[in-house]
TrEMBL record:
Keywords: Lipid metabolism. This is PNPLA domain-containing protein. The keyword Transmembrane helix does not apply. Pfam families: Patatin. GO terms for biological process: lipid metabolic process. A motif (GXSXG) lies at residues 38-42. InterPro entries: Acyl_Trfase/lysoPLipase, PNPLA_dom. The keyword Lipid metabolism applies. Gene3D superfamilies: Cytosolic phospholipase A2 catalytic domain. Residues 5-60 form the PNPLA domain.
C-alpha cells in the first residue's frame, strides 16, 4: 500500500484530529503513515500521534 504523510493544521480543526486518527486506526491506514507534522495545536496532536496510542490523546 502507498505510504501516507499525516499533516495536521492548527486552529479549531485540531479538535477533529484525534477522531481522524481513530478512523485511520480502524481502517488500517495508520500502519502506512511514514511522517507526521503539524503547526500549533496540530504539532501537539502530532506529538501525541507519535506516541502511538489515541486513547491517551482522547483523555487529554
Amino acid at each position: 500500500m502507498t505510504e501516507v504523510d499525516f499533516i495536521l493544521a492548527g486552529g479549531g480543526k485540531g479538535a477533529y484530529h484525534i477522531g481522524v486518527w481513530k478512523a485511520f486506526n480502524e481502517y488500517g491506514i495508520s500502519d502506512n503513515i511514514c511522517a507526521v507534522s503539524g503547526t500549533s495545536v496540530g504539532a501537539l496532536n502530532a506529538a501525541l500521534f507519535s506516541q502511538g496510542d489515541y486513547h491517551i490523546a482522547e483523555t487529554i
